[in-house]
Amino acid sequence: MNERDAEGKALDLRLIRVIRNMVKVLYENLERDIDSYGLSLETFRILEFLYNKGPHPIQIISDTFSIPSGSITYVVDKLEKKGFVERLPIPGDRRKTNVALTGDGRSYFDNIFPNHVRTISDNLSFATDEEKLELIHVLKKIGYGIRNREGNDKNNGTDFL
């Protein structure tokens, strides 16, 4: 790694502040949107995961969102009581169950998810599609560079797709 001069270091620090502040403002706005549906961020993430990725074992959901096993059971229990999810046995493994959206859960998310996507698009509308593609390229380059430099081949829940 090359040593940066004072001007380069100042630029790096400015970039980190801009990224941090932008992410903070963006996520505050998205969390307000999620709150407007009467859902916690954790609950929304789980519903969105099941909505877009289909049924998954509870352990995978727990690992994906770094939710302790006791907490994930509690959250899934609450979603099950609301009729949004159900536990389904995994054929060939009686110890594990998949969590899946119910028809009511899918219908509920069919109603709110397009609005949430619209909120995301509205928040990102200040950049052109070309700028977004370039930003994706640069952020992936930085993310993969850090991961590879540290010799960390594990995903650790971070996917730069």
Structure commentary:
The protein is mainly alpha-helical and 161 residues long. It contains six helices and three strands, in the order ααβααββαα. The longest helix is centred in the N-terminal third of the chain and has 30 residues, at 6-35. The model has no long low-confidence stretch (mean pLDDT 91).
Order of helices and strands: HHEHHEEHH
The Cα radius of gyration reads 19 Å
Whole-Å distance between the termini? 25 Å
Q: What helical percentage do the residues reach?
A: 55-70%
Low-confidence stretches: none
Task: Characterize the overall form.
Answer: globular
Key phrases:
3-stranded antiparallel β-sheet, 161 residues, 3 strands, globular, mainly alpha
Layout of strands and helices, then pairs:
Layout (H helix, E strand, L loop, with lengths): L5 H30 L5 H13 L2 E2 H7 L4 H13 L3 E6 L2 E9 L1 H22 L4 H21 L12
Helix pairs in contact: 1-5, 3-4
Question: TL;DR?
Answer:
This protein is mainly alpha-helical and 161 residues long. The chain has helices spanning 6-35, 41-53, 58-64, 69-81, 103-124, 129-149; strands at residues 56-57, 85-90, 93-101.
